[in-house]
Specification:
6 strands, globular, about 220 residues, Rossmann fold, 12 helices, alpha/beta, 2 domains, six-stranded parallel β-sheet
Length: about 220
């Protein structure tokens, strides 16, 4: 593969942040005096933040605007992104190697942009990415390929020379179905690990696997 562009998911791919999302919906509902259903985590897993807000409002009769729900959720997690969350192992070195190989990079995420910007800036990784695209910004979750298509337009590369890095099986499946080359990234919070490994064109346990190698020969 002649690698010219890279589209990175953020949570669980670049940053070790999935733990905060596991019970976020339930914690938010409890803060409003609502008891979450046992299947809430499963229901929200593949949704964007916008989709989650609409779902919570309708299923739990919150009688709040979508914007108010999103604000409430973001308020719960803001301090985590601003002061705590860290990149996964070897991410910085991997991004630097891509940069030195003239690979253009963007982020495509379901998390709100200000949270991503805070985490990147604190860890000194902002300059590696030309743009941060969000599901809310493009109007579709990762059950649809729009965010990957917009990312490709931003990179100004072609699909065959662009690699999508995803830790979530459902998101990787969307990208793959849309004709993208996919690199699965291991994360402990993704239960469909074998499915991800089988689906992906490449698969990383961590980013050290491709360090100190000629990237254009590996990909």
């Amino acid at each position: 593969m002649n690698l010219r562009g890279a589209i990175f998911d953020f949570d669980g791919t670049l940053y070790d942040s999935m733990a905060i999302w596991e019970d976020l919906g339930a914690d938010y509902l409890r803060s409003l005096g609502k008891e979450p259903a046992s299947d809430l985590r499963e229901q929200l897993q593949t949704m964007s933040l916008d989709q989650s807000a609409i779902y919570l409002n309708e299923r739990y009769a919150l009688h709040l605007s979508k914007e108010a729900i999103i604000q409430g959720i973001n308020d719960q997690i803001r301090s985590y992104y601003v002061s705590k969350v860290l990149p996964k192992a070897h991410v910085r070195d991997f991004l630097q190697e891509l940069k030195e190989a003239d690979v253009k990079m963007v982020i495509a995420t379901a998390t709100d942009k200000p949270l991503i910007e805070s985490a990147l800036e604190r860890c000194g990784l902002t300059t590696y990415f030309s743009e941060i695209l969000t599901c809310s910004g493009v109007g579709f979750g990762k059950d649809q390929p729009m965010i990957y298509q917009k990312a490709l337009e931003s990179l100004e590369t072609i699909k065959s020379e662009t690699l999508v890095f995803e830790d979530a099986f459902h998101a990787a499946q969307t990208a793959k179905s849309a004709g993208f080359v996919v690199c699965g990234v291991y994360d402990a919070f993704e239960p469909k690990q074998e499915e991800l490994k089988s689906l992906a064109d490449y698969y990383l346990i961590d980013f050290s696997q491709f360090l100190n190698k000629k990237l254009r020969e590996e990909f």
